[in-house]
Design goal:
The chain is mainly alpha-helical. The chain has a single domain, classed as Up-down Bundle (Growth Hormone, Chain: A). It is built from 21 helices and no strands. Helix 3 packs antiparallel against helix 8, helix 3 (about 40-80) packs across helix 14 and helix 5 (about 90-115) packs antiparallel against helix 20. The longest helix has about 35 residues, at about 40-80. Its main location: membrane. It is found in: Membrane. One of its GO terms (molecular function) is transmembrane transporter activity. One of its GO terms (cellular component) is membrane.
């Protein structure tokens, strides 16, 4: 009998949980067994959560904002002279935009294995520092080939961020806190867009009035790249690998921080690769629905994130205006992600709540597509509405933290999800064909179709999780069912653990 089959009547839990080996359990089990008995009062938990938020969330938020800003810097540079100075023609710019995700794709699987095998914060810090330095190298690009090479390495080093941050979130927060926290740090994509537009505009205007020995787009890459590398050094100093080496917590608080996530049925980490968990990830319908969403929904993301400045110019605004007019789109993303993250946790239904952002985005792209050139303000409002589109992507990213258990399975699923994300983002810029400029009407229609298909996929995931919860409830109701002591920390997968309940 497989670990995911229901037990026969009277069968013990031990017979079902054939992988429940205390010698190969989560790191948290050894901490709980070795430490004193911890009783958490509601006041203790609130105080501890505030302390965790003060240290963990700023690190995640700032770095994730830079993650978005660094990879979309090329969009600002594209209207600051980068395309002319590197002699780009035809689809060259689209391929430079896509090349980032080839690097991301090439290193996604290795970096996820290293996130499990190496100290989580230290490996993440190394990648942050390196991608900041690589971004600086964009300033030296003078040809299509050199820009392609640098963008590949930029994607390679940035591939550790999203899966790493999903692991940090599942490590430190309970299932009812993860949606809002993931939405909050992911919302700094929007802040990256707001701040990036302001920096690009300031550099463009400043260098025009006071010319320097380098071009404005070169200065943009240098300023943002060096700042990112400096933040990476701070991340290395501040961010703990897990609760056990958190310098900002006392010894007792470290035990409390582990105890409070017992409800997740997941633990804080296991460094051993388990083949059965890998196989389960590869055969789980929910996982493939996640991957399908990432692929289809990120075709629009790949196009819009690299062409938004050029789209705004096509509405009838000039290049400098477009740098500023892109900023409110970031504000829409921030608000949509924070509200959807909070509401999803509050109503215990992230999947249905997150579809609101997708519906707004579909409406926005219909405005951009259907309005004529005499309604440039309406088109601009439509573009702003499209910036609510990341809400389902973030909800699913948080559900990898919440609904996927077993550390080998979790890191495998994170890699698969982000491989889908990469493929979608590689395709996205290619639907913006140079021959369709400046309107890019076929690309806009493609984006609408992708978002409608993505909406159907979210509804399938919602149905699947509900049906699996009913099956698990039936297993727990069987006569003779016994829960193993410490089962939460045995590094079991979501499908084999009868106590595991899928969050909606």
């Amino acid at each position: 009998m497989s670990s995911t089959d229901a037990p026969e009547k009277g069968e013990k839990a031990e017979a079902v949980l054939k992988h429940a080996d205390s010698n190969d359990a989560d790191d948290a089990l050894r901490i709980i067994q070795a430490g004193e008995t911890i009783l958490l009062t509601p006041q203790d938990e609130k105080r501890l959560l505030r302390k965790i938020d003060r240290w963990i969330m700023p690190c995640l938020c700032i770095v994730y904002g830079l993650n978005y800003l660094d990879k979309t810097c090329v969009s600002y540079a594209s209207i600051m002279g980068f395309k002319d100075d590197t002699h780009l023609q035809g689809q060259d710019y689209s391929w430079i935009a896509s090349m980032f995700y080839f690097g991301y794709l090439a290193f996604e699987w290795p970096t996820n294995r290293l996130l499990q095998r190496l100290p989580l914060a230290k490996w993440s810090s190394f990648n942050i520092i390196m991608w900041g330095l690589v971004l600086c190298c964009m300033a030296a690009c003078d040809s299509f080939s050199s820009a392609m090479a640098v963008r590949f390495f930029l994607g390679m080093f940035e591939s550790a961020v999203s899966p790493g941050f999903a692991l940090f979130t599942s490590q430190w927060y309970t299932i009812h806190e993860q949606g809002s926290r993931t939405g909050f740090w992911f919302s700094f994509n929007g802040w990256g867009q707001i701040i990036g537009g302001a920096i690009a505009y300031g550099i463009a205007v400043g260098t025009e009035k006071h010319p320097l020995g380098i071009k404005s787009w070169q200065l943009l890459f240098l300023v943002i790249g060096l700042f990112t590398a400096a933040i990476g050094v701070l991340f290395l100093w501040i961010m703990p690998d897990n609760q056990m080496n958190a310098k900002f917590l006392t010894e007792k608080e470290r035990l409390m921080a582990v105890e409070r996530i017992r409800v997740n049925q997941q633990g804080v980490g296991n460094k051993h690769f388990k083949m059965y968990q890998f196989k389960e990830a590869m055969t789980d319908p929910m996982v493939w629905a996640f991957v399908f969403y990432a692929l289809v929904a990120d075709i629009p993301n790949g196009g819009i994130s690299n062409f938004f400045s050029q789209l705004i110019v096509s509405f009838g605004f000039n290049s400098k205006q477009s740098l500023l007019l892109g900023m409110p789109g970031g504000a829409v993303e921030v608000i949509a992600l924070i509200v959807a993250g909070w509401a999803g946790d509050y109503y215990h239904n992230r999947l249905l709540v997150c579809t609101s952002g997708l519906l707004l985005s579909i409406l926005g792209m219909l405005l951009v597509t259907c309005l004529d050139n005499s309604h440039n303000v309406g088109k601009l409002i439509g573009y702003y509405l499209t910036q609510a589109s990341p809400t389902p992507f973030v909800a699913l990213l948080s559900l990898i933290s919440t609904n996927v258990a077993g550390w080998t399975k979790k890191t495998t699923v994170a890699a698969m999800y982000l491989i889908g994300y990469c493929v979608g983002n590689i395709i996205g810029p290619q639907v913006f064909q140079a021959k369709d400029a400046p309107e890019y009407r076929p690309a806009k229609i493609t984006i609408i179709v992708c978002w409608v298909v993505s909406l159907m996929d979210i509804l399938f995931i919602y149905w699947w999780c509900r049906s699996q919860n009913k099956k698990k409830a039936a297993i727990r109701a069987q006569p003779g069912y016994v829960k193993i002591e410490g089962q939460e920390f045995y590094d079991l997968t979501d499908r084999e653990n009868p106590e595991f309940i899928y969050s909606l």
